[in-house]
Design brief:
Oligomer: single chain
Shape: elongated
Structural class: alpha+beta
Order of helices and strands: HHHHEEEHEHEHHHHEEEEHEEH
Number of helices: 12
Largest sheet: 6 strands, antiparallel
Radius of gyration: 30 Å
Helix content: 40-55%
Distance between the termini: 52 Å
Length: about 375
């Protein structure tokens, strides 16, 4: 227990920072790519944007510098005349120097598209069969975690000649070779065309938004340092994860025990395992003829909130026939339960753990109100 408390104390700051980073809003500004939101999730839009941006000499030069930093041999000759193609030979983008017979392949996987069988080999062979040297095969993903799969049927020679050319590049990732920090931001300072500057700035903003929910490498690096200080820290962290997985069920059963004081009003109090959540159910309260009243206290996923819902089991609740309104009038005015017509029930969501006491107070007030009605 002491080791658990010690580890929790050390991780509290890191955990808070991790959540803040993940939930930090991306600055709101006009963005043409967000206005066409039914399109920006598609792979070919990113290909089209990158193909357009690489037409600019400065952006092309800076992009090639990024590639050369990742792979020394991925450099065109000084007299190269590079042409940029889109969807040539099924390749998303290709940078081609016809004079010196050299090419760079760019495979866009920003939105995580599945690799086709021997896809990269097909692209490599397209240029190889024309006598081109493939200087690099850029495997561009959102955050660098997706890797190309060498599907069955590769020969050793095929595997070696293709994978030795691969350059892993992220669209947006902190402390990692990426488009945003290593290409877009450095290039913006040298762009004089206002339309081009606006385009690349907005595209960088889009990449920030797309990657908003990915892992925070800096915080996770600090987490790694702490849990690897000794073997017990890591084992404790694993145990804590298991306890958190089991916590929703524990919490539901805990509330089942806490609400047994209400069995005179709700004869059945039990835990119901829904498809995606657990609920402590207070059931079979008859407050009017043919009106079977039930309360669900649902532990929402990750146990970070509790939903209290009041409803009639047979689904007869309506504004015309609604005995629940009489109950609510006897409860404190700040009960916060609001009618949801789509679900035909009164609902309020409470944050856990900070509002758990409000859940308990609501149940007590509810039971007291029903008892008053039953006495009449």
């Amino acid at each position: 227990m002491n080791n658990t408390l010690h580890l929790l104390d050390k991780l509290s700051g890191i955990g808070e920072n991790y959540i803040l980073r993940k939930n930090a809003p991306v600055a709101s500004r006009p963005n043409i790519f967000l206005l066409i939101s039914d399109q920006y999730h598609k792979e070919n839009l990113h290909t089209a944007i990158l193909h357009h941006l690489l037409q600019d000499p400065l952006l092309l030069k800076n992009f090639l510098t990024v590639l050369a930093q990742q792979r020394v041999n991925c450099t065109f000759k000084e007299d190269a005349k590079v042409e940029i193609y889109k969807e040539r030979g099924w390749v998303d983008i290709s940078l081609v120097d016809t004079n010196n017979k050299q090419a760079i392949i760019i495979e866009n996987k920003i939105n995580g598209a599945v690799d086709q069988p021997k896809q990269l080999l097909k692209y490599y062979n397209y240029f190889d069969n024309m006598g081109f040297e493939v200087l690099g095969t850029v495997y561009l993903t959102l955050d660098g975690r997706k890797k190309p799969l060498s599907s069955p049927g590769w020969t050793l020679n095929e595997y070696e000649k293709v994978f030795k050319t691969i350059i892993y590049l992220s669209a947006y990732r902190v402390n990692w070779p990426d488009l945003y920090h290593h290409w877009i931001l450095p290039s913006m300072a040298g762009i004089t065309d206002i339309d081009l500057l606006s385009t690349i700035r907005q595209y960088g903003h889009l990449l920030q938004i797309l990657n908003k929910h990915t892992m925070d490498n800096l915080t996770l690096s600090n987490f790694y340092d702490i849990i690897t200080e000794n073997n017990q820290h890591f084992k404790t962290a694993q145990a804590m994860r298991q306890m958190l997985d089991d916590f929703p069920l524990f919490l539901a059963h805990k509330m089942e025990g806490e609400y047994q004081f209400a069995t005179d009003v709700f004869p059945q109090i039990w835990v119901y395992n829904k498809s995606d959540a657990l609920a402590t159910v207070l059931q079979d309260c008859m407050i009017a003829e043919n009106f079977n009243f039930t309360v669900d206290v649902t532990v929402l996923p990750n146990a970070n909130a509790l939903e209290v819902s009041l409803f009639e089991r047979q689904g007869y609740l309506s504004p015309v026939n609604d005995p629940i309104q009489g109950i609510l009038k006897l409860m404190p005015s700040n009960h916060g339960l609001i009618y949801d017509p789509e679900r035909a029930r009164y609902i309020r969501v409470f944050q856990f753990p900070e509002e758990k006491h409000l859940v308990d107070e609501s149940i007590v007030s509810l039971v007291d109100a029903i008892r008053q009605i039953k006495k009449k």
